[in-house]
Backbone:
């Protein structure tokens, strides 16, 4: 039998190892991904409820022409009457993608508020955006008031950017 | 090496905690040490992840040490470690979602934690699976204990609480009220982390140096 050249041997070794690892990861993923998906949708429903209670939510994403960064658009309904919209906006923060839910009441053009859905910011610093009160709930859509976080400028600015995107989307569709 | 005595395996384990502590003596894996030690809970979470990844990677690397071609051993170790970390990541996202959110980017960063690659290269690639697992457990315990001690100090000084697990929080704000002081954010910042870590490292090094000096002296006397 001809001798296998060294680089090919090494390549085959890595290929086999990679295949084993990939198979292992696929197996783990097959049983963890449904749990992760379920937890995500549960969390989404809870967060939507935090923004506006006593209404039903409907995924209206396909009804509107979305601006860049707007991932989903949920309508809030009492019966069949639309009284608000919640935008799921994704922006990049300091440590990766930040997903923010921003709600606006369509009846009086005021902000319901915002909630950070997912983030991977620096623990202890950028993660402050999760519990921070940006002081926008109840403000008019045209208001530019925004309470920054000292020491976490990049993360807070990302949230601010998400807010601007949501307002632009709202102005496009409702004003 | 296979008939290594129980005594020396115990020493092998203890070296990770004291004389060769990965954080305080070798100064490896500083990134998670400084970043994740703001809360005892996240220190624990990171510790669990590292215990699992380090033990498994040392075991696997030791088992395959005779068939891995020398030229590509580092990429092989990295593939093994990355696979293990990804498994931990997926498991944590599924079963401990809150912990997963708290650890954030530092969980995937375990892949490039020098402690893990360092032990694979320096120890597991040259020793038996049993010794490698003991070495990994010792090192991981050293890492976790350091992180927890650091987190206890930082969380107490910075927030006045000790969060052990989710809602199991020891509220020590009473201590501050009694002393008419208040917790200072400084200890939650990176500067505070360096300060506490430095003092801790100084303390443990002074202790181990003192001990080894005493042992040397005793030996000299015995002669």
Residues:
């Amino acid at each position: 039998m001809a001798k296998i050249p060294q680089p090919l041997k090494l390549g085959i070794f890595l290929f086999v190892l990679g295949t084993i690892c990939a198979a292992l990861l696929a197996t783990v993923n097959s049983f963890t991904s449904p749990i992760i998906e379920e937890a995500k949708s549960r969390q989404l429903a809870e967060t939507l409820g935090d923004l506006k209670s006593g209404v039903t939510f409907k995924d209206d994403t396909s009804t509107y022409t979305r601006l860049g960064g707007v991932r989903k658009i949920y309508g809030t309904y009492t019966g069949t009457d639309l009284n608000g919209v919640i935008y799921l906006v994704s922006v990049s923060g300091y440590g990766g993608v930040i997903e923010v839910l921003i709600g606006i009441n369509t009846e009086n053009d005021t902000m319901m508020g915002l909630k950070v859905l997912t983030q991977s910011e620096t623990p202890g610093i950028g993660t402050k955006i999760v519990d921070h009160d940006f002081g926008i709930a109840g403000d008019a859509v045209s208001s530019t008031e925004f309470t920054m976080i000292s020491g976490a400028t990049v993360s807070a600015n990302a949230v601010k950017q998400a807010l601007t995107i949501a307002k632009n989307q709202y102005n496009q569709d409702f004003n | 090496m296979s008939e290594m005595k129980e005594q020396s395996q115990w020493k092998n384990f203890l070296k990770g905690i004291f004389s060769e502590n990965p954080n305080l003596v070798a100064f490896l894996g500083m990134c998670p040490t400084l970043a994740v030690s703001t809360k005892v809970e996240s220190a624990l979470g990171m510790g669990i992840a590292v215990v699992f990844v380090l033990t498994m990677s040392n075991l696997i690397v030791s088992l395959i040490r005779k068939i891995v071609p020398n030229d590509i051993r580092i990429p092989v170790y990295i593939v093994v470690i990355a696979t293990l970390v990804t498994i931990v990541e997926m498991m944590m996202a599924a079963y401990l979602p809150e912990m997963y959110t708290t650890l954030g980017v530092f969980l995937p960063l375990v892949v490039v934690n020098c402690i893990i690659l360092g032990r694979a290269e320096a120890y597991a690639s040259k020793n038996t699976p049993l010794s490698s697992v003991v070495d990994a457990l010792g090192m991981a315990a050293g890492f976790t204990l350091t992180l927890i001690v650091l987190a206890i100090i930082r969380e107490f000084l910075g927030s006045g609480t000790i969060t052990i697990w989710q809602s199991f929080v020891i509220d020590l704000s009473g201590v501050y009220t009694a002393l008419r002081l208040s917790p200072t954010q400084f200890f939650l910042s990176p500067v505070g982390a360096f300060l506490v870590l430095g003092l801790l490292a100084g303390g443990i090094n002074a202790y181990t140096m003192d001990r080894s000096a005493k042992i040397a002296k005793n030996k000299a006397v015995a002669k």
